């Protein structure tokens, strides 16, 4: 398995990570990770939108609330199994005091 570690400054609200997939790694599965911290609601929300690794396909969107009880961590899992394309991807997001850490594993 391969991993990418991305350190995201607290002032950055969105990043995109691209993961190669397919037999020849000729596709890029792109994930846009969006961060929302609401002082009013006292909640941290992570939203991930992917490009479905497919031309013209609708993106899938997932959101989770990040809580202190789970060590300020949230996990997203993606799986694709098509005739010419197979991939399993795990995205972990950690909220730290000064930044955020995104770990993409495939």
Q: What are its keywords?
A:
four-stranded antiparallel β-sheet, 106 residues, 0% helix, 65% strand, elongated
Task: Describe the protein's architecture and organization.
The protein has 106 residues and is an all-beta fold. The protein has one domain. The chain has no helices and 8 strands. The chain has a 4-stranded antiparallel β-sheet, with no helix packed on it. Strands 2-3-4-5 form a 4-stranded antiparallel β-sheet, with no helix packed on it. The mean pLDDT is 87.
Summarize the structure.
The chain has strands at 3-9, 14-21, 27-38, 43-50, 61-66, 73-82, 85-95, 99-105. With 106 residues, it is mostly beta strands. It has one domain (3-105).
CA radius of gyration: 14 Å
What's the number of structural domains? Answer: 1
Order of helices and strands: EEEEEEEE
Biggest β-sheet description: 4 strands, antiparallel
Distance between the termini: 5 Å
- How would you write the strand order of the largest sheet? 1-8-7-6
Furnish the topology, listing elements before pairings.
Elements: E1 3-9, E2 14-21, E3 27-38, E4 43-50, E5 61-66, E6 73-82, E7 85-95, E8 99-105
Antiparallel strand pairs: 1-8, 2-3, 3-4, 4-5, 6-7, 7-8
């Amino acid at each position: 398995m391969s991993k990418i570690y991305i350190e995201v400054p607290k002032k950055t609200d969105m990043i995109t990570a691209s993961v190669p997939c397919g037999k020849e790694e000729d596709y890029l599965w792109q994930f846009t990770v969006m961060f929302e911290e609401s002082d009013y609601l006292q909640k941290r929300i992570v939203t991930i939108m992917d490009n479905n690794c497919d031309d013209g396909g609708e993106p899938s969107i997932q959101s989770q609330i990040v809580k202190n009880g789970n060590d300020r961590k949230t996990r997203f899992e993606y799986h694709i199994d098509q005739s010419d394309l197979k991939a399993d991807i795990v995205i972990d997001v950690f909220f730290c005091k000064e930044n955020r850490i995104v770990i993409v594993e495939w």
